[in-house]
Design a protein that fits this description.
- The protein is built from ten helices and 18 strands.
- By secondary structure, the chain is α+β, with helices and mostly antiparallel strands.
- The protein has a single domain, classed as 4-Layer Sandwich (Chorismate synthase, AroC fold).
- It has a five-stranded antiparallel sheet.
- A hairpin with a 2-residue loop joins strand 14 and strand 15.
- The protein is globular.
């Protein structure tokens, strides 16, 4: 079973990701991990913390000469801005954060809650997801995360291949697939920041090259759509997850929702085994299993809760009304969220890949992959 844990606080010395169940025999490209860490720090609307940190991963355990051993992999990212012990506590909890509920739950300080609840923790999740993306790539599976809406403004993707879309995303200041809309979106972010407010948006992740049968219908907690939904909803500030049509499916009749099935014998040797769908309303998942079509996941990110134009709160010591505390923050982190969501989706897909084809080594997984597709083509 492939899984991971994270450790570390926002202003602590380090962020850690411990990945267990990763097969032996894969050469890790730390440069590709660092690239995702840099993208997580980028995007228009980010704050001063990102100019301080230059995130780079260090592999502490689980490799020999850069190659995975099959033992737990420990990935470390050092925080340059570590000052946890010197920071004062916050007395006025910020609406939208875990400040109040966490301090009551643990009967402790707000500072103790906010430092772990901070989205800085997602640094470790991005590192783990970037590692998972390298495993997926061995099997021809590609992932791409991007922004489709920001501040209530839709940013529809322009047509293109996966490679073309990757280039578009990387050329966009807000990580969309329509860089021509960057300037008005940047202006909206600037205007909102000057008003002391923040913006949210919607991100989308596309995964191509998936085989049939990742995930299962057999147990509710092993359904891939459920595992993806949990992983995405666990990202800070995400308030909704859709797969395929998502909520739109509830507004249509069945004939406008379900994807017809056709067969093209000339495509038998592809990952979808020749089974084609003229539409992909299901988003690549049916009954908790991949169906050979691209996986489409969307996530709604609320605006950042820390506002310069502070909302009313209560002083926890005096119980008197006062404005919420302010901590250094961003105006908009929707582009960064597209990186984080891509990485957590990639990790869950990799988990399902290991469940289906898993062995102790990459070589064993590849042999099982080939055997399954040979048997499936004869089915």
């Amino acid at each position: 079973m492939l899984r991971y844990w994270t450790a570390g606080e926002s202003h602590g010395k380090t962020m850690l990701a411990i990945v267990d169940g990763f097969p032996a025999g894969m050469v890790i490209d730390t440069g590709r991990v660092d690239a995702d860490l840099r993208r997580r720090q980028g995007g228009y609307g980010r704050g001063g913390r990102q100019r301080i940190e230059t995130d780079e991963v260090e592999i502490l355990t689980g490799v020999w000469r850069g190659t995975t051993l099959g033992s737990p992999i420990t990935m470390q990212v050092i925080n340059k801005d570590f000052k946890l012990e010197r920071l004062e506590d916050l007395e006025s909890p910020r609406p939208g954060h875990g400040d109040l509920s966490g301090s009551v739950k643990y009967l402790g300080s707000v500072r103790a809650i906010l430092e772990r609840a901070s989205a800085r923790e997602t640094t470790a999740r991005v590192a783990a997801g970037a590692l998972a993306k390298q495993l997926l790539g061995i099997f021809g599976i590609e992932t791409l995360g991007y922004v489709v809406e920001l501040g209530g403004v839709a940013i529809p993707p322009v047509a293109g291949t996966m490679a073309e879309h990757r280039d578009l995303r990387d050329s966009s200041s807000v990580y969309s697939l329509n860089p021509g809309q960057d300037k008005p979106i940047e202006a909206l972010i600037d205007q909102t920041g000057k008003a002391g407010d923040t913006l949210g948006g919607v991100v989308e992740v596309r995964v191509e090259g998936l085989p049939f049968g990742l995930g299962t219908h057999a147990q509710w907690d092993r359904k891939l759509d459920g595992r993806i939904a949990q992983a995405v909803m666990a990202v800070q500030a995400i308030k909704g997850v859709e797969i395929g049509l998502g909520f739109e499916a509830a507004r249509r009749v069945g004939s406008q929702v379900h994807d017809p099935i056709v067969f093209d014998a000339q495509q038998r040797d592809t990952s979808h085994l020749g089974f084609q769908r003229p539409t992909n309303h299901a988003g690549g998942l049916e009954a908790g299993m991949t169906n050979g079509q691209p996986l489409i996941v969307r996530a709604a990110k609320k605006p950042i809760s820390t506002l310069r134009k502070a909302l009313p709160s209560v002083n926890l010591r005096t119980k008197e009304s006062e404005q919420a505390a302010y901590e250094r923050s961003d105006v908009c982190a929707v582009p960064a969220a597209s990186v984080i969501v891509e990485c957590v989706v990639a990790f869950e897909v990799a988990c399902a890949l290991v469940d289906k084809f898993g062995g102790d080594s990459i070589e064993e997984m590849q042999a099982r992959w080939r055997l399954f597709h040979e048997l499936a083509r004869q089915h």
